[in-house]
Amino acid sequence: ILDNWVKGTKVSVSAPQGTFTYERLRDAKTVIGVAGGSGITPFRALAKSIANGDEDFNLILLYGSRTQADALFQEEFKEIAGKQ
Asked: Alpha-carbon Rg of the chain, whole angstroms?
């Protein structure tokens, strides 16, 4: 994003819709997820599925919290990232 987007770049995003699954025929091979606070939870499940070999796609996750201490599942994500 930092290397390729410029002011005015159009981006397609969707709001939360109550379903959170990866569909190979619908979704790109690389998914960029944006989450804040407890919104990280579905991405945690996706990351675990990728790490376990149940899903075959790349997940780039942009996650924000008020403080680093407030960031949920930090150690789990570090462990999952270490498996890749």
From this structure: 14
